[in-house]
Amino acid sequence: MRKKIVSILLCMALVGTMAAGCGKKETSKDKADGKKEITFMIPDWGNPGEELLKEFEEESGIKVNVEEVSWDDIRDKVSIAAAGGEAAADVVEVDWSWVGEMNSAGWLEPIEMSEEDKKDMPTLETFTIDDKVLAVPYANDYRIAYYNEEHFKKAGIEKAPETWDEVYAALKKLKESGVTKYPFTLPVNADESATTSMIWFAFARNGVAFNEDGTLNKEAVLDALKFEQKLVDEELIDPAAKTFSGMDCYRKLTSGEASFMVGPTKFVGISNNPEESSVVGQIKPILLPGKEGTSQVTMPLPEAIGITAFSKNKEEAKEFVKWYSSPEVQKKLYAQNSSIPTRNSVIEELINDGTIKNAGAMLDQAKLIKSPFPKGVPDYYSEMSNTIYNNVNKMVLGEISPEKAFDTMDKKIKELVK
Fold it and tell me: By the 8 A CB rule, do 237 and 171 touch?
């Protein structure tokens, strides 16, 4: 079986190389004709569309050929092409969780960014390893808290919670008063959303999730696991959440079944959209709670674009990345695709002019974005995530204790770090 897989991969790499060779001939012809073209591989939500791309072509003289590919398939396409020394595309989607692996494999070309840009785009830190910017974020996502103000008032709670002790007290009151049966919604299924939930929980409560060497911070992670277990044991979280997808969990807030959550930034808009929410006008975005007050950090989970190391058109690709991440284009992408800007200056402008409604603490939370990974997202992230979410899920199912969950995760991650 293993030999068969190797053979398939070799064939795929050979086919990719042959196809890329054909592509080179076309590129040479284009250059001979004085035309400049690049290829751009992106999921449908990141496609700027013909009108915007025409604007870029008129400004730069560079034509962008877009290949829409599902998010799940992009990394494989980049990997297969790179095995043959070729570029899947000049510019490609780079998820925050891929950047460590792509860096170690040498698949990405470093991108020069000004200090002004770095300050305006705090999520650039997520795509920076060894002081090299490997991709530029275009779609923002960071964890922010939400509460149903009407639910809280019905339970006799007049103030939004600022600490996790206050959150816990509010959840108890909401449940005991019958306002919501399961007032908190949190992903704890055996999938990626349970991993990111555990990381942001530890990070928000303790300001740290990982040690400088990449291992788990025992005090912070065990604290988060015990708190999650308490919420499950007291049925402040729906028992069915043990098998829900992350998005199904988050939608418990907009259906009115839950009163509090920490979730994706896009729920600022979703919660206020009558087509997607039954509690329009009730949900307020607030700063993530911490232990002594509101948390001083939040975890980013953005999407970015990067230039493949094997691209033959790197200068043109850099010009496109600069344009695509510019303030004006970010505003247009928000209007077109609802992509939350990665520039704080653009978020602020869209809030101030009323384009983003019900923003609450959205901008203040964006200013607290910080990567929980001291040395950048590791190249073994997918394996690490697998051990985290499986053990979190076993814990909430009652199969293991928080201590056992931590010990198992800790052992595996220490092996990966080596």
Answer: no
- The residue written with tokens 């779609």 in the block is 139
Q: How far lies 38's CA from each of 4, 67, 115, 322, 410, in Å?
A: 35, 11, 27, 14, 44
Ramachandran region of residue 354, left (φ > 0), alpha (ψ -120 to 50) or beta? left
On the CB side of 397, CA atoms within 13 Å amount to: 13
What pTM does this model have? 0.89
- In contact, 146 and 285? CB cutoff 8 Å: yes
Structure-block tokens of residue 241:
């959440």
Residue environment code for 42-62, b if the CB has 16+ CB neighbours within 10 A, otherwise e = bbeebbbeeebbeebeeeeeb
- Beta-strand ranges (E) seen in 131-238 are 132-133, 136-139, 144-148, 184-185
For 379, the 3-state DSSP assignment is coil
CATH 3.40.190.10 matches 144-299+380-417: yes
CATH of domain 2-141+302-363: 3.40.190.10
Strands (E), 87-154: 91-95, 108-109, 128-129, 132-133, 136-139, 144-148
Q: E strand or H helix at 349, and its extent?
A: helix 344-352
How many Cα atoms are found within 13 Å in the side-chain-facing hemisphere of 153? 6
Distances (CA, A) of 368 to 123, 212, 373: 10, 20, 15
Q: CATH 3.40.190.10 region(s) of the chain? A: 2-141+302-363, 144-299+380-417
pLDDT in tens, the chain (418 residues): 333 333 434 444 434 444 444 444 344 335 555 679 999 999 999 999 999 999 999 999 999 999 999 998 999 999 999 999 999 999 999 999 999 999 999 999 999 999 999 999 999 999 999 999 999 999 999 999 999 999 999 999 999 999 999 999 999 999 999 999 999 999 999 999 999 999 999 999 999 999 999 999 999 999 999 999 999 999 999 999 999 999 999 999 999 999 999 999 999 999 999 999 999 999 999 999 999 999 999 999 999 999 999 999 999 999 999 999 999 999 999 999 889 999 999 999 999 999 999 999 999 999 999 999 999 999 999 999 999 999 999 999 999 999 999 999 999 999 999 8
